[in-house]
Specification:
Layout: H1 2-12, H2 26-29, E1 33-40, E2 48-55, E3 59-71, E4 77-84, E5 93-100, E6 107-120
Length: about 130
């Protein structure tokens, strides 16, 4: 039975044309990502930068690294830190994150340094 199925597949496969894949790169998806964040200064733990990562793309992303820059009053960079957020953000959703706040600086700049495309997800359609 397996031999017959394999034989039938071999006859059909050469005539089947594969649809071209629409591959996207991280650069294509990056414009659909955005951050909102704030510095939290609770007295019971080390200060953190907490926020939300919005994914407006059709791809699930993960392994997100954030570049956190401490700035002086003239907006010059005092220090840089790359922090992993350890979040998996499905397409068209958002996820909360927290990363350690740099010790120096009173103002900060937070940007997405890198991420990994996990999978393209089907769009949700309403009935």
């Amino acid at each position: 039975m397996a031999l017959v199925a394999l034989s039938a597949f071999a006859i059909v496969a050469p005539g089947v044309a594969a649809a071209p894949a629409h591959a996207q790169t991280a650069a294509d998806v990056a414009p659909f990502l955005r951050l909102e964040w704030e510095v939290l200064k609770e007295t019971y733990r080390r200060p953190v930068i907490a926020g939300v990562l919005y994914n407006g793309s059709t791809y699930r992303i993960g392994s997100v690294r954030l570049l956190v820059e401490a700035l002086d009053p003239a907006n010059q960079v005092l220090s840089q830190t790359v922090s992993y957020t350890y979040v998996d953000v499905p397409a068209q959703t958002r996820r909360n994150f927290e990363v350690p706040r740099p010790r120096e600086g009173e103002s900060f700049r937070v940007t997405i340094a890198s991420f990994v495309l996990i999978a393209r997800e089907p769009s949700v359609q309403s009935p």
